[in-house]
Each structure stands twice: as C-alpha cells, then as structure tokens.
Amino acid sequence: MLTLIKKIFTALIILLSLTTISSAQNIFIIVIDGSRYTETFGAEDKYMPKFWYNLREEGTIFTNFWNEGYTSTIPGHSSIVSGVWEYPPNNGSEPPENPTIFECYRKQKNIPEEKVWVVAGADKLESIAYSSDEEYGEDYCASVETNNYTGDLDTYENLIEIIEDEKPSLVLVNLRQTDIAGHSGVWDDYVSAIRQADSLIFDLWNVVNSDSSYSDNTTFFVTNDHGRHDDEHGGFRHHGDDCVGCAHLMLFAAGPDFVKGAVSNSKTSQLNIAPTIAEILKFNMPHADSTSLIGK
Q1: Alpha helices in 58-186 (DSSP H)
Q2: What domains can be seen in the chain, in order of their start residue?
Q3: Cα–Cα separations (whole angstroms), residue 245 to 36, 69, 123, 251
Q4: Angle at 246 between CA 242 and CA 247, to 5 degrees
Q5: In angstroms, rounded to a whole number, what is the distance separating the alpha carbons of residues 264 and 47?
Q6: Rounded to a whole number, what is the largest CA-CA distance in the chain?
Q7: Residue 4 main-chain phi, psi, to 5 deg
Q8: What is the pLDDT of residues 266-296, one digit of tens each?
Q9: Most buried in the list 9, 43, 99, 256, measured by CB within 10 Å?
Q10: Contacts of 89 (CB under 8 A, 6+ apart)
Q11: Residues 174-215: tens digit of each pLDDT
C-alpha cells in the first residue's frame, strides 16, 4: 500500500512539473525603435489598428512597462538582451558588458549560429550580438543582418528571407524607421512609420503562424527600446532623459505562456524580457537583474 502511495505521489509530482514547462520553442522580439506609449497602446487603434483589432486578443498587454536606464537605441537594446541596465555609447562602438540571450542560449543549449539572429535597420546594432563577458563573447554571437537606414521594408524583407532559409529559433528585429522619422520633427512621418510597423508586425504574425515550424510553439514580444520626449520636455523630435515620454514603453507578449486577451498593470521593465526568454527556452541568464514576466 505504501509503495502504491509513493508511486501515485511521484506521478503527481511529474504531472505538476510538466504543466510548468513551456511548449514554446521559438522567440521573436520585435522592437519598434523610438515610439512613445502615447502613440502605441495609449492611442489604442489610431496608429496601430492591425494590432488593436487583430493581435491584441492573442496575448497579454503590459501597460506599466518601462525603460529605467538610458533611453537611447543601443543602451535600450543592450538592456533588453542582457537583463541588466547597460550604458554603452549609442554609436555601437561597445558591446553589452553582460552576456546576452544569444550567447547564453547558444552556449548552454549548443545552438548553431544560424539559428540566432539580430535583424536591424541600423549597422550599429551589430554591437548587441555578443557581450564583452570573457566566458561568452563572439564564439556564441548572434548572426546579424542590417540595412543601414534604408527603411523598415528592407529590414522586413531581410527577416522573411532569413525565416525561409534558416528557420531561426531566437530573433530580435529592430524596426528603425519610427526613430528616424521622429528625429525629422515631422509628425506625419513619425506616425506613418508607426502605422507601417503595425502592418509589418501583423504580416509577420501571419507568416509565422502559417508556418508549421512555428505555429503554436512561438512567442512574440513587441516592445520599444525607448520612447520620445513628452510635450513638457521638448516634444517628440528627440529623446534621452527619464521623462515619461522617453521611459514609458509598450510591451505585448503572445505565445503558449501568456494569457490571451489579458492586460497586466504590474510594473515591469526591459530587464524582465531576458529572464522570460530564458525560462521559455530553458536556459539561464547568470547576470540578469530581474525576473520572468510569466504569471505577472
């Protein structure tokens, strides 16, 4: 009788442990570079109608999500991929100091380079492909494809080609056009770039979910590296301080581990993304300074 009870207890433990294991095997992180919360979730369907009407119910919206570090492109991306506030120069001349999701995933899971990508609209984002940590580094880098300031359509074409040819399992995509348009100071160009990003993200969602390699086992994150100054701090043309316009960002997460149609008001930050990815893909982020978003 005691043996039977032990067997039942063991079976229950195994069953419970299995329920906590993610079924996701692939990750896409889409970064809309330099768009304010007020023009994304804060505007509902005004500038991102495809997201609002077609994607919103597919995952969880995080409404209290922040960049609490330096609100520029390279520091923002570096913090996303390392899970630590990183402060490298914004010209891409220095890598993150702490190991990135790309390095940890490749080293710990023995993943080949062609399965891990940074696809970006600026050459300087090559700098986030690996860190300066001596235990990781270039041997475990992400593959990189950039189109230097030629626009998001070119970035998207590169991404689709990589998906078709390589079937990557961990990808960060930088949609750069919004930041470029914002710096122009032309409002219509800025919001037009957000609308274009919205369309590209929806198209990517459909491409991925119609591919048997990705359908039902892929997690999407849609977020920003930084926002832009709010009106009280100079307006949308520039960014780089800790005003609400620069620091308050969007985050959408969809996949097997996230509740559909949910809204989370829990305070979260860019540092939560790397530990979440590590939990989903079952590797460790040794220096990450926060916790997973799953369950928040």
Answers
A1: 73-82, 101-109, 152-166, 177-184
A2: 26-281 (3.40.720.10)
A3: 6, 14, 26, 15
A4: 65
A5: 21
A6: 77
A7: -65, -45
A8: 999 999 999 999 999 999 999 999 999 998 7
A9: 99
A10: 74
A11: 999 999 999 999 999 999 999 999 999 999 999 999 999 999
